[in-house]
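Late entry, coenzyme A complex.
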Amino acid sequence: MSNRPFLKGGKTVLRPVEHGDILVIAKWLNDPVVTHTMFYGQLPMSEEQVEAMIMGQVRSPANTVFMVETTSGISIGFAGLYDIHLTARKASFRILIGETDHWKKGFGTEVTEMLTFYGFDRLNLNRISLGVTADNVGAVRAYEKAGFVVEGTLRKDLYRNGRWYDSILMAILREEYDAKLAADFSERFTQKLKTDR
Ligand SMILES: CC(C)(COP(=O)(O)OP(=O)(O)OC[C@H]1O[C@@H](n2cnc3c(N)ncnc32)[C@H](O)[C@@H]1OP(=O)(O)O)[C@@H](O)C(=O)NCCC(=O)NCCS
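Prediction complete; structure with ligand written out below:
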């Protein structure tokens, strides 16, 4: 288990990104299976380029980026809230689970839920949105399970694998979160203090 856990769920832990994580992130970003329906992976990325990009994201006060670990301490991906906007109180969610043997086991859904909780409960956001390639059925399913709804389609948004892909915009609003998810997510993701009943 991470020695710097920041948020904990039943299956995953979110912790800060460290310099020592760059090597494994570079492995994921150069893996054509992982990036199959993403903008990542269209150009090779050296360790140096990955470090500049990821550490640039980490350093920006407009982003909160986390490493995703299993509760047994294996780093399996990274995820975060990006482009946090001060007055509109909105942000974009992004996730990459890079260890493919950990796909379809509920990790993506839980991380989406946990960062949705974090965005509304801790950052007091009003809206969290994301973009996803329409063919990325696993991602769309994970986001729907976590409470996101489809807002629209961007036609021919990505050229990859010799063809065009449409992208879907999805989002969740504070009022939807409060009405349907806040009680459950707070129960699952709020750290209990010893003094709590
Ligand atoms: C997309 C991604 C986040 C999904 O994570 P995950 O841990 O596999 O997701 P979950 O296990 O929580 O799956 C959610 C649901 O989608 C289903 N699913 C996942 N991958 C699927 C796939 N490739 N095909 C069909 N269904 C899939 C799961 O079975 C589950 O459905 P269920 O609960 O009804 O059985 C992960 O595969 C990933 O990071 N891929 C590479 C990068 C990427 O595409 N990021 C998203 C960019 S927008």
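The chain has a mean pLDDT of 96. Will revisit in the morning.
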